[in-house]
């Protein structure tokens, strides 16, 4: 099982292939935002992967990051990343201080839209 280390929170074992957004909210108990419900539309689920960034990226995430002009190194959409190896992440978008009433809509177990994988 992959180890997920969340800066300032701790290290957790997560199910292999679990969506990072779910691991952050369910396993690590963070208040990670996911306003669009995890479908690569909004960028509120941004994290910075400090170690262990996957080389693959969904076409949807790549396009959303491009359109939103997100170019910082290691910044990814947690709704589009699978936990398949050990990672260390920094949660960027949190409910605390956001002014939102909740973290966002329910997130499906599978990546949405259907993953078309490409290289970063």
Estimate the mean pLDDT confidence: 96
Query: What is the level-2 CATH architecture name?
Result: Roll
Rg (C-alpha, Å): 13 Å
Strand content: 25-35%
| Uncertain residue ranges | none
Q: Regarding CATH, which class?
A: Alpha Beta
GO molecular function, one term: iron-sulfur cluster binding
Protein name: Putidaredoxin
Organism: Stieleria bergensis
Keywords: FAD, Flavoprotein
Please summarize what this structure is.
The chain is of the alpha+beta class and 120 residues long. It has helices at 20-27, 59-67; strands at 3-6, 10-13, 18-19, 46-51, 56-58, 75-77, 82-83, 87-91, 117-119. The strands form 3 sheets. A 5-stranded mixed β-sheet has the order 2-1-8-4-6, covered by helices on one side. A two-stranded antiparallel ribbon has the order 3-7. It has a two-stranded antiparallel ribbon with strand order 5-9.
